[in-house]
Amino acid sequence: MKMTYLRIVLAAFAFLATVLGLPWAVLISMVLLALRFRAWEVLIIGVVMDFLWLPSESLIWPLPLFTIGALLLVWGLEPLRNEMLV
Hints:
The protein is mainly α. It is built from five helices and no strands. The protein has one domain. The protein is flat, with a radius of gyration of 13 Å.
């Protein structure tokens, strides 16, 4: 029960920081969620952050950085998370 509450609070904080445009807060929340949980919401947070704040007219830098970072966090931290949770 306590961990579910923590997960909901972290995800809600990340979505609020996404809307407010605080990339450092979103990144910290994404890392904390990915370290502790198998957090599919990290991917959604990354996509929403890119949709809201990625410049669409930029031809030089059109990479969705938060989505790529979310994929790396969720898949890259899987072995570490398995060691921590077992």
